Amino acid sequence: FVERRGTALAIATSGTSMANIIAPPVAATLVKAYGWRTALASFALTGGAAMLLSSLWFRRDPESTGQFPDGKDGPPTPLDQTLISSTDGLTAKAASRTRTYWLILGMYALTFVVVFVPFVHSNQFAIDLGIDEITAATVISSIGVGGLAGRLLVGPISDRLGRKRLVVAAFALETLAFFGIAASNGLTLLYPSAVVFGFSYGATVTMLPALVGDYFGREHAGAIVGRIFGTAGSLAAIGPYVAQLLVDSSGSYRFAFVLSGVANGAALVMASRLPASGQSAATT
Fold it and tell me: Residues 62, 202, 282, 107: what is their CA dihedral angle, to the nearest 10 degrees?
């Protein structure tokens, strides 16, 4: 996809947010009825089967199935071909030599290292505020509601307004959301903060492959996204653990959420330094 890259990615990644909406209350019910081992095994089997089955329909690109990019009825026109060819030049190795690559890697490393903190700790944080277990699980569902909206709205809008502007706004919202969660004393602020976090998180995750496609091209986008996500995404395992250490030492979840907001503020600064949308990274 070239012309509607953001829209395509929004649709493709919306399933994650749907799972965030549905799974938490189901998990809470299963744990209460059968224990956490049975609940975890059920999710593992269901998720594994779904991924294996869906992989049977994966295709590398439209050309491999006799179709054309962007759903066109025929081969690209000279203007279309110019648009496609102009973004097909950088390999993963060449991309890693650009300033833009390291800005994208840095900002996603900063946000991914804390991105699972709300998913792992907001439930217990809500319980500590005096909210019952089933209702507390819906806080994570509200993250899914926001995430679904963020993906489906920001993806198509970024096709029109440009990716940089939208990713900067998303990081700003994510920063505010973490501070909102930290300041919560009940569901009145916790719910909307969780929704805003989900919205902004959904937007930033959706735009990662789109940013890579915009700046480095379609041909090697998979390899470049893999490198960035493999590095930055791996850091996501650290955040929840460090957050728990902070909780153990301070007796409160608030400091962990504040630090998560600071990390996203730093990501916001890096995002603001990206080249203008539509500018190739070959010279940056």
Answer: -150
Helix (H) or strand (E) holding 137: helix 133-161
User: Which residues have CB under 8 Å from 246's CB, separation 6+?
Assistant: 255, 256, 259
pLDDT-based confidence at 63, cuts 50/70/90? low
CA 257 vs CA 117, 129, 239, 263: distances in Å: 8, 15, 10, 10
Q: What's the residue count for the chain?
A: 284
63 DSSP 8-state letter: G
The CATH number of the domain holding residue 10 is: 1.20.1250.20
* 224 closest CA partner among 212, 235, 233, 215: 212
C-alpha pair distances (Å), 246 with each of 97, 172, 182, 257: 37, 24, 13, 10
Structural domain boundaries, residue 60? 5-283
CA distances from 251 to 125, 247, 254, 256 (A): 11, 5, 9, 11
Q: Would you state the structure tokens that stand for residue 202, as one six-digit string?
A: 């959904």
> Within a 13 Å sphere around the CA of 242, how many CA atoms are in the beta-carbon half?
15
Using alpha carbons, select from 106, 99, 84, 90 the residue that is nearest to residue 232. Answer: 106
pLDDT in tens, 204-254: 988 888 899 889 987 888 899 999 988 888 899 999 999 999 999 999 999
Answer positive or negative: Cα dihedral of 52, 40, 209, 94.
negative
Number of folded domains in the chain?
1
